[in-house]
Each structure stands twice: as C-alpha cells, then as structure tokens.
Amino acid sequence: MGFSPHLAERRFGYGRSPVIPAPESTAAMLDTLRGPDLMAERFPVPGFRPIQDAHIVKSRFDSFAKKPTTPADQAEDARRKSDAIVHDFLRQRFDTFGQLELRRIHGRDSFRERLIAFWADHFTAQGKAGLFKLAIPAYVEEAVRPHVNGHFSDLLAACIMHPVMLEYLDQSTSIGPNSKRGQRKGNRRGLNENLARELLELHTLGVGAAYSQADVREMAELLTGLSRTRDYSFAFRKGWAEPGSETILGKSYDGRPGLAPIRDALRDLALHPDTAAHLARKLAVHFISDNPPERTIARLTQAYLDSEGDLMALYEALLTDPASWDAPFTNIRPPQEYMSTALRALAVQADRFATLEPKETRRWFLRPLKIMGQDWDRVSGPDGWPEADSAWVTPQGVAARLDWAVNVPARLLPELPDPQTLLEDVIGPDVTEPLEFAATAAETRAVGVGLILASPALQRR
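The structure corresponding to this sequence follows.
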C-alpha cells in the first residue's frame, strides 16, 4: 500500500480535514515536526505559573477567613474572593479544552499533536488537591510539548522533575532515612518509592525488565531531595537527600550534592536498551496495531539506540517502516482522539469555540467523553489510558459516540456539510458502498453526517 497523504492523516494524525492539505511525504511530516510549533503560538494555553500564584492568593484568603479574630463580614468577603479564584480557573479549564481542540482541528502537523498526547499519557501526572487538579494542561505544556521533537532524556528529566509529577507520586515529601531531616528527632516522614518505581516500570525500562526491588530502593534514595516550595515551584532540598552513593542496575552514582547524580541516572536510564525496546513497542502499538510486527519493534529499538535517544530518529524509523502503511486499520481511536477527529472533519471554527458557554462545553464535550469512557483531564492512574481496543469498544461507549455524532455537530456549525461532500473530503478512498448509501439516503442531513462521523473509517486508524 505504501505512503499516501490520506493514510498519513488517518494513522498518524487526527484524520482528514476538508480545508487543510494533507502532508505529501514522510519527509514533509518530519520537517514540519522539526519546525516551529505554530499551533501553540496560535492557540496558547496558560502555563503552571498562574496556578501557583492563584494558589498562594487563595490560601491567604482562606487563612484570613478562618482566623477567630477576623470579623464576620471580612471573613465572608475573603471566602467570596477565594471562591472567585476557583471559579475563574474552572472557566479557564473550559477555555483550555477549546484551545487544545483547535490545535488538533486546524494544525497542519497533527502528527505533533498525536505525539504530544502519546507522551503526555506515557508521563501521566496530575495535581492531587485544590487548583492543582486543573494543572494537567499546564504540566503537558511545560514538560512535554517543548521536548516532543528532542531527545528522550530531556523529556524524561522535564517530566520527572516537574512539581506536578513530584506531587502526584509523593516524591515531594520523600526524605532520605540518613539525611539531616531524616535524622531529626520527631521526624515522621520517610522514604517514598512511588516515583522511583514508576520511573523504572512505566517511564523507562518497562514492566518485566531486569531490575530488582533493590534498584527501586536505591533509585528512591537517589531521588530524595527533589521537592517543591510552598507555591509548588521546583526545589532541591539538600537536607532531605540521602547521603552517600547509590547503585542502580550495577552502576554507582556518587554522593555529589545536588542534581548531577540524578541527571546522570536519568540519562543512563533513557539510553538503556530495555528503555529503547519499551518505548519502541509502545509507540508501535499506539500508532500501528495492538500486535505490531516484532521486526518493526526491533527496527525502532535500533534507531533509538543508534541515535542515543533522538526522538526524531525514532519517529523517522516509525514513518518509514512498511508496517506503518501496510497494516490494516484495527486500532480504534480512544474517545478524546475520536472527538478531535470528528471536529477536524467538520473544520469547526475558532470563533465558535470562543462563544461556547461553560455549560455547553460540559454538555457537548466533557460529559459525552466521560460516558464514552475517557473523562477529560481526569487520568485513570500512573499508567495512563489503556491502548487495547477492547477497553473502548463497549456498548455504552459505542452508543455514546453515535449519539454525539448525530446530535452535537449541528450545534457547532451554522450549516452541516452535505454528506456526499463530507465523504469525498474526509473519508476519501476509504468510503464503502454501504456507508455512502446510508449517509446519502439518510432522512436528515444530521443523521447522514452522524453516520459518517461514527463510521469505522473515522473511528479506526
């Protein structure tokens, strides 16, 4: 079968758009990915700093309101201001959802957006309480997005050391047993292995790789000192760091103070052959099939090792592998990806998202996603969302997709496209006679469009 612009959009992007040209070659896809991040510039998303600042201000209002000496009227005013901060960020959450969708709808390099979603899931993290429950987009924006076309070691360090990850996996309170803080009388905190375990098992070497509980323990001791400040800025606390050297996978990391030994260990993990094989298999499963050819995985693994973890080399090996273009379209798009694909097919305009009320965003997008099985911005666990198609093909999920496809598009567009035109512009060579008949013979245009959006040609890649 080989490369085709249509296949490129279907398998590696968010499907065809009726208004955006598809890439002409794998080289063009890679060149675009190497280039500037135009969608991030056009549809900006706030970073982590505004959440940190708001957290501090809200905490002050809350503390003031709780003081026994605070007059009742002033306490009430402080509570209102605290609630207003939360309200503003909840509204911003809906705006952010729109911005992220617009990047997928209007981007020429939707391969970049797919990769960002892939790595964000690989490095799943979220805030645990208060405003920080809304921090996932900011975390992805700062830790994942800038490194998606760089080296994996940089992506790894950015994610592992981000305050959201440190908080999510309890690293921010992990203390070396023999550190100054650990030896302090009355200290109740101890060593926490959560981040070390997920670092080895999920983020680098993979489940079943040749590491032991002793490696996990040593890694946990090496990571001590990684923490945060009161406003959730990154901090390295020397007094919490376990003194001495640690041995991980047979290599000793000396007792130099500071981040140098941690960075060395992360780089070694990034370049480990087990990490290369783990990432290669995961990438192939995500983009090609639940059971990709072993020769494809071996090829991707070698490309990663030969380039010392250059992600562009890994992507090039993926895009130039025959299986990427010859394998049948068996993978079903997860709900969030499916919805983005449908919105891209409809070419929903930016000004329509700008006019959405929070209740409309909730009713037309967030609630349906939850029913489909993928609650937006609410991760299921450190291992991210499942890749297996069986996780998404459920009676409730399939029914929710069809219901959304038939009922929501008419609320987003001033006029629905003609089904025949939509078939030609979006489905292209994948159109089948039954689909063409059903869509064009439907009683209403909304039903015809809905049938196209719910078709296997759009839901599978």
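The longest strand covers residues 226-228.
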